[in-house]
Amino acid sequence: AAMGKETIRVFARVKPLGRRQQAGSYAVDNEEPLPSLEITVPHDLADGFINNKRESYKFKFQKIFDQEAKQDVIFDSIAKPVAECVLAGYNGTIFAYGQTGSGKTFTITGGAERYSDRGIIPRTLSYIFNQLQKDSSKVYTTHVSYLEIYNECGYDLLDPRHEASRMEDLPKVTIMEDSDQNIHLKNLSLQQATNEEEALNLLFLGDTNRMIAETPMNQASSRSHCIFTIHISSKEPGSATIRRSKLHLVDLAGSERVAKTGIGGHLLTEAKYINLSLHYLEQVIIALAEKNRSHIPYRNSMMTSVLRDSLGGNCMTTMISTLAMDKRNIDESISTCRFAQRVALIKNEAVLNEEIDPRLMIVQLKKEIQDLKDELALVTGKQRTSELSQEELLQLDELIEAFLKDNDADSSLDIGADMRKIKYCFVHMKQIINHPMASGKKLLSQDISEEKNSNEEVEKLKGLLQQRDNEINILVTMLKKEKKKAQDALSQLNATSAGSTVLEQSPYMSLEESQSPSRCFSLKDAKDFSSSVPRLPLLSRATGEKMSLGCQEAFEVFKRDHADSITIEDNKQLLKQRFDEAKYLGEKLNEVRNKINHLKGKIIQRQIQRAALAVSNPSEELTFDPVEENLRMQVEEEKKSYKAVYGRFKGLKVEIEHLQLLMEKVKLKLQKDFEVWWSEEAKKFQQEKPEMVTSPNTATVYPQFIRSSQHLSRNSSSDTSRGSLYEDPAVKNNSITFGNPTLETRTPPSSSTSIPLTGDSQADADILAFIKARQNILQKKG
Ligand code: ADP
Ligand code: MG
């Protein structure tokens, strides 16, 4: 699945001229078969430094974007095709190369102020997440990482320890090479981002960390390389193949060179890079562009090691040459274009990065086995299970019998090409030889299974009978208790002689429930509850059906009287409070974020002012600027508060998850208590009536129930974390949905609204049904 060899695509982008800048002379021609950029060397410059006859240079590019090109156009023509490749499973790299101030950061990340100035990274994130959302045919996972390389040291801009420590004190990102010569970066964190907001939040944090680390003395932004990487893995449901791809978005260090004055001649080519690693990058590119070079010096610098795959390897690579075309920067622009021409010669071959997931392979093989079995069944006309059916066994027995009786020497036993049948015949023959007495008329297999069947049937009916007896007994006792409660309540009511006081005595009763007293015993509620919890295994196990009606009714009453219902209600309230709080914090995060962005803008303004000052007054360069320092301190402060609020937000998330789990637990405990209570009640009746059959079910309820409850809680916790708990708190503050508590809690109705004692209440009807069922069973048995 290779894309075929392709050269690195090289584009040029010309930065708009500054207000006081003097325009250099250049011409853009995007019409030719290959677009070209022609730069004319200013005469004064040519006379002074360059001793040659040529005064204009022509460079070929994939396309040239002149000063007025906007960010959306840049994204559409440069980044989008690469993003599409990455979505298809290929690796991609886009790097910006050019002198400091030529617009690398503006192109890759974007301007800080206007939304329309968003650069390639945010637009790519937006595009990728949009595409992923649209494609439901695959399951996608996305991560991002953000690496800064400064002075040959790697720093993780997304390391969460940034808040506590200075960049220099964090563990350095180092390069590891495995036996297959693949590069791995140690100490570089991969942060999962499930949506655009999360990814943007990470980009924002990384950029802030990068800015904070920079001081006027270490101009990190011009001397460091930054690599923002989007990692995507995808898989079709049911397929064992995982595709992984990476998109590196690279903001290189400034490409400016130190001019060696006084030597004369070809000064532009001899000038040395300020940044040594760019020198190594150039060496790698020269080596790659040369034919028949076997050794490429990737290992000379960290940056070339990291980008090894993107240069001359398995990657779709694109370079953007950023150019500042004012007169003073023409020489640097020519250097940039020369570099670009060499890069354009490099051929890369992107291949799909696929690997096999062994677990899924097993699933696939199992399916294949089933398919083959089905096919076999189709051909033989018989469904093949691992065991022969009763019918088939009988048939075989008859065949064997006929075969043995047949005195014809030529007679054969024809049972077809079925290993199971052949095996059975041999076993059977062996039996006849070893026990000639037992092999009378009836064959062993029949005897055993028939006897077993009837025994099983009796046992099953006995168990069922036992259960029904227990249920009836428990329900009758409950009815008695309810009757007593109702009588108590009635007498209390008479004592106070006011209808409204009933409501006061029962704070948990809702109006609706007080109006329809029979509701508390309706079957519908019991079903609602039991659908949100695992089924009671107590009775369902023996009968293989849903919890019996009687059991459900008893559970309803038990639930109503249970003290934990109050806890559930309290937690529900608390949960709502926490949701509100989380929403508020989300809004707050947005505010602080805006503040930081504003301060960042101010710092940049200040830097521009000072840079302008330095030009007019060179001696003042690199002095300490208290205003900027102050602004930086403010950003530092805001960042702290952002961290603090975000920390609280995260804390809340944990709390909410915790609360949800807690409620789940209470719910399960209630059910477990009911189980215990029910089985104890059942035992009581058994002791009272020792002639009854003992059911094995009551004793073994416990372990199975516990297993099923664990299963549930695991499910529910993954449910809650799948919600928007990890979504960007700042942006999504209006839609914080943590996944609502699943527990259906009804406010427990007052005990005074108990079931009617006579007449045809549901409970009474159920008891009658049970008694009838019991009679049926007895009849069947008899
Ligand atoms: P670099 O990262 O190459 O050092 P920057 O991206 O920081 O350069 O650009 C320097 C300045 O020029 C910034 O203030 C930036 O906003 C501005 N700039 C660069 N390119 C453009 C552009 N195409 N349109 C408008 N402003 C730009
Ligand atoms: Mg920059």
Automatic annotation (TrEMBL):
<keyword id="KW-0206">Cytoskeleton</keyword>
<dbReference type="GO" id="GO:0005524">
    <property type="term" value="F:ATP binding"/>
</dbReference>
<dbReference type="InterPro" id="IPR056524">
    <property type="entry name" value="KIF6/9_C"/>
</dbReference>
<dbReference type="Pfam" id="PF23735">
    <property type="entry name" value="KIF9"/>
</dbReference>
<comment type="similarity">
    <text>Belongs to the TRAFAC class myosin-kinesin ATPase superfamily. Kinesin family.</text>
</comment>
<feature type="compositionally biased region" description="Low complexity">
    <location>
        <begin position="709"/>
        <end position="724"/>
    </location>
</feature>
<dbReference type="InterPro" id="IPR001752">
    <property type="entry name" value="Kinesin_motor_dom"/>
</dbReference>
<keyword id="KW-0175">Coiled coil</keyword>
<dbReference type="Pfam" id="PF00225">
    <property type="entry name" value="Kinesin"/>
</dbReference>
<dbReference type="InterPro" id="IPR027417">
    <property type="entry name" value="P-loop_NTPase"/>
</dbReference>
<feature type="region of interest" description="Disordered">
    <location>
        <begin position="709"/>
        <end position="759"/>
    </location>
</feature>
<dbReference type="GO" id="GO:0005874">
    <property type="term" value="C:microtubule"/>
</dbReference>
<dbReference type="InterPro" id="IPR036961">
    <property type="entry name" value="Kinesin_motor_dom_sf"/>
</dbReference>
<dbReference type="InterPro" id="IPR027640">
    <property type="entry name" value="Kinesin-like_fam"/>
</dbReference>
<feature type="coiled-coil region">
    <location>
        <begin position="441"/>
        <end position="496"/>
    </location>
</feature>
<protein>
    <recommendedName>
        <fullName>Kinesin-like protein</fullName>
    </recommendedName>
</protein>
<keyword id="KW-0963">Cytoplasm</keyword>
<dbReference type="InterPro" id="IPR019821">
    <property type="entry name" value="Kinesin_motor_CS"/>
</dbReference>
<feature type="binding site">
    <location>
        <begin position="98"/>
        <end position="105"/>
    </location>
    <ligand>
        <name>ATP</name>
    </ligand>
</feature>
<keyword id="KW-0505">Motor protein</keyword>
<dbReference type="GO" id="GO:0007018">
    <property type="term" value="P:microtubule-based movement"/>
</dbReference>
<dbReference type="GO" id="GO:0008017">
    <property type="term" value="F:microtubule binding"/>
</dbReference>
<keyword id="KW-0067">ATP-binding</keyword>
<keyword id="KW-0493">Microtubule</keyword>
<dbReference type="GO" id="GO:0003777">
    <property type="term" value="F:microtubule motor activity"/>
</dbReference>
<keyword id="KW-0547">Nucleotide-binding</keyword>
<feature type="compositionally biased region" description="Low complexity">
    <location>
        <begin position="741"/>
        <end position="758"/>
    </location>
</feature>
<feature type="domain" description="Kinesin motor">
    <location>
        <begin position="7"/>
        <end position="346"/>
    </location>
</feature>
